[in-house]
Amino acid sequence: MTQLKRILAGALSVCMAASVMTACGNDDSSSASGGSNSTGSNGGTESRTNTAELHGVESSEESKNTLTIYCWNTEFKSRLDKYYPAHTDMTVTTSTDADGNQVIDAINGVKINWVQNENEGNVYQTKLDEALKAQKESTEKVDIFLIEADYALKYINGDVALSVQDIGITEDDLSQQYQYVKDVATDTKTGELKGVSWQATPGLFLYNAEYAKEVLGTDDPAEVQEYVKDWDAFTETAQLMADNGIKMLSGYDDAYRLYSNNVAAPWVTDDKITVDPQIKAWVDQTKEYTDKGYNNKTSLWDDAWAAGQKIDGKVFGYFFSTWGIPFTLLPNTVDEEIKADNSNAVEGNGGYGKWRACEGPQAYFWGGTWICGAIDSDNTDIVADIMKVMTCNKECMKEITEGEQDYTNNKAAIQELIDGGYKNDFLGGQNHLALLTEAADKIDLSNKLSAYDQGCNEKFQAAMKSYFDGSSTYEEALEAFKKEITALYSNLSMD
Amino acid sequence: MPMSTDVVGHSNDRTRLLVRRIIAYVVLILLVLISLFPFYLLIVNATRGKVQSGIEWIPSNLLGKNFSSLFSAKTSTAYGSVFGALKNSLIISGLSAILSIYFSALTAYAIHVYDFKLKKFAFTFILIVMMVPTQASAIGFYRLMKDWGLNNSYIPLIVPAIAAPAVFYFMKQYMDSALPLEIVEAARIDGCGEFRTFNSIVIPILKPAFAVQAIFTFVTNWNNYFMPRLIIEDKSKYTVPLVLSAMRNAGPLESDAGLFNLYIVIAILPVVIVYLCLSKFIIRGVALGSVKG
Amino acid sequence: MKKKSISYAKWGYIFLIPFFVVYIVFSLYPLIQTFYNSFHEYIIDRGSIGGGWTTEAVAAEEQIKFIGIDNYKEIFSADGTLVHSFINTIVIWLVGFIPQIAVSLLLATWFTDLRLKIKAQGFFKTVIYLPNVIMASAIAFMFYTLFNQGGAMYDLVCRITGNEDTLLNSVWGTRGIIGFINFLLWYGNTTILLMAAIMGVDTSLYESAQIDGANPTQTFWKITIPLIKPLLSYVLVTSMIGGLQMYDVPALLTNDEGNPIVNGVRTARTLVMEIQTRKDSNVGLASAICVVIFIVSAVLGFAINFLGSDKRDGKKKKKKAKRG
Description:
The complex is a heterotrimer.
Chain A: H1 2-16, H2 61-64, E1 66-71, H3 75-87, E2 92-96, E3 102-107, E4 110-116, H4 123-134, E5 144-147, H5 152-156, H6 179-184, E6 203-208, H7 209-216, H8 221-227, H9 231-243, H10 256-260, E7 268-269, E8 272-273, H11 277-291, H12 303-307, E9 317-321, H13 324-333, E10 355-358, E11 370-373, H14 380-392, H15 394-404, H16 411-419, H17 433-442, H18 453-468, H19 474-488, E12 493-494
Parallel strand pairs in A: 1-4, 1-5, 8-12
Antiparallel strand pairs in A: 2-3, 3-4, 5-11, 6-9, 6-10, 7-8
Helix pairs in contact in A: 3-15, 15-16, 18-19
Chain B: H1 3-46, H2 63-70, H3 73-79, H4 82-113, H5 119-129, H6 138-147, H7 155-158, H8 165-178, H9 181-189, H10 194-223, H11 226-231, H12 240-248, H13 257-290
Chain C: H1 2-38, E1 40-44, H2 56-61, E2 62-66, H3 70-76, H4 82-112, H5 121-133, H6 136-147, H7 152-161, H8 171-200, H9 203-211, H10 216-244, H11 248-253, E3 261-262, E4 265-266, H12 271-278, H13 283-323
Helix pairs in contact in C: 1-13, 3-13, 4-8, 4-10, 5-8, 6-8, 8-10, 10-13, 12-13
């Protein structure tokens, strides 16, 4: 109980922290105004389970000497390989792979086994579920698994992730992290924090500076922001762009997250699916944009969608979170793939240096990866150390931001970078961290997440396509979504 | 019939024949182009970059790069080792083919050579189940394999090949036409055991049928997507079609069109080579398989 | 002779053991299990996961209870998706099968036409059969890339029709592409089967027809078709059963979605795709779909047995004629 209280108090202190490096709140502060999701719970009145205890069978020697990590892409791996060794006290052995990158072979003699499964079509979750359900009885234990916000609750509330306090991560360690990031990974039954992330993923509007100059007469982020400051302004600008043969956005789904982050209620409450008015607003807007030719009628990640990111791609802008730049925009906009030594990361290589960022019409976040320790992990010491180094270590966070363009989940680190005159070459020397900080502070996730969001988001976007392209009415598309989603999640119903 | 019309009819016939011949060749050449066109584009695309749009007729120069990234460590964590998948597919398809032909022949032999009470029943039973698609029992199969802890293993992909009604049927047909009972009788007179007769005398006679069915079973399993998708979970155990589908679904960080196309080429290459070498033989096999009755 | 076969009978049983054991364990028992599940509501909650420190979570996740034929009712209820997927399967199969049988018949008659004397037959046969040995999934991916926005065929179609939408967004575009791939995969195979059948027809029949002044069209309809009818019905039935199992191509082409959607119906969704979607969520319903596939296949199977007896007579006659 006291531990729970302390966690909540810690969360509270972060909420209230106006200045950097505030000390923790005191132990007897009330838990009423903790994290938005971590509101009251009476699970704590009974003696709580220490999640780090062993609940199932003892694991094998082999498993003890292997750190098994479930993931869906190489994002975390590349960061761990690159930044972890320099900031940990553990003994890390590394080697160099064929591309010249540092790769971790073992931590304290424990080798790493990456189990990567694609996110698409629920494959990652299905495989992870199998492994976690078998975890207790298995002698081969999963140690770490990564999750996304869209289905975080399933695992966070599912008694499968370690509570971070049980493996020795203190509220002090977490004091610089954003509240919304913690909310995503907070067990709503017990209020315990069960996952941590190295990044916050506030979103911005990234636009093509050349088109901005050509059509709006300016490429200055502050001035361009005036043209996209709310949805009305955004739509007017879209018309302006259309008059000049430029699409405002590329795909149907581009603005989706801006709306879905601002819903009044989650997709699923008590096994009932509801379509929020904000989601409907997205549908209406996208339909209007499609009919008026403000978009390219593409779908997220399509080749055609990506083609608009060329500097002459005839698309004005994209909504992206921080990771969108290195993942997608950068590789898609350059003519020549960026070399390992960055020698061609200069203006003149395609769109390099010709994009800018502004806040856009609405605050939102998109994506992000949370690190969870699996219950019955047989390497909790390493799990805890990875969490500490990769999400709480200020120096490490600064390096990640500088090296990977991630907006790291550490207010102090970001502030230091801003104060140090951070410049992003890809954005033509713009300091977009300041914008992101503003955006990150505005994100509020209270009562917006359900365990089924990934399926709902994917199926809804897919179903609405037929409405956008005119082959069915909204009601028909909605009916298709209903059938699809209840087939995927048979326990849910929808009116 | 008057003479004159016959002559006219004849020359008419000739022009008509010529026209028909021209039409036939045009259609055939068109079909050849349609059949080969996608493969040409595939090969061209395998030499192109990460993001591809539009058509390209001439191969680009990124084949080497795609090759090295295909076999890089990053690709193997993302999709399972592509080399490993080729090996896995080879093991599954190879073993299935061997088990399938051997045991189907054994079953056909039992029906062909011996007389026993349940023979008719057994034969009819197999003929009936020949029409039952695997999909019909897929869910039960999937759940049971899970219960038995056999999901994620090769056993459910290989062992069922022993009971292949269609291969059995082919073998039975072949025995009807190529395995006179006298040979078996003679072997018995020579004091040969039943099992040995089958292994050392019957199998050599069945060689052509074995070859045809081995190729078909191999190809079917090599190309199979449904069953491995149901059973296999570990990346390290992925077969070629599973790796392909994982590549297709790769997130924005990993997706690489050049790599993907190159792997498709690699995935179909072994089968295409074997096919081109043995096409006459295979096509005859297809025709043979049709002689039912 | 008779005495001998009695003494060897046990070997017949022994040699049948592997087949029947494997068949019962890996096919028959799963099939019975599938039947059993199909009468139950067997739902797995994919939004929750248990396995941690409580066991209740696991129990809450799966619910199994007997519901009689409700799953079957759902398959055939008018406002469900499943009946549409059933219809889609049939429609998509037809889109592929009609050109397949037409082209195959045409090619088979040409190849076997003694007067036409098509040269390089080996080459043509090799090429037209080639797609059949190639991974259907690979071909589906190829076509996806071709027709998706930015693909080669997409550009071409845009230029011809002036419509910027991809064919993959139109119902008949998608069905057409799936049908075309199925056509491409199977027309070579069917051509070869039909050729074998046509070549089995007594050539003297054609000769006498020619003497009687019948033109190629007449010989085709009056002689070829009736005589290869048994084989045609065999091709038809096996193709129908194959069509019922259609999965790789539509699934991979439409990314498991079965798009496009029209009137709320996913028009490229097939029955097996419905099974895959539900294998970890609604096991009961998925099993019922399996059973429907089983029943339809069984009916078709009996149909071919019925037609087959007809065919056997034809074959015997043919063999006799050849020998005589």
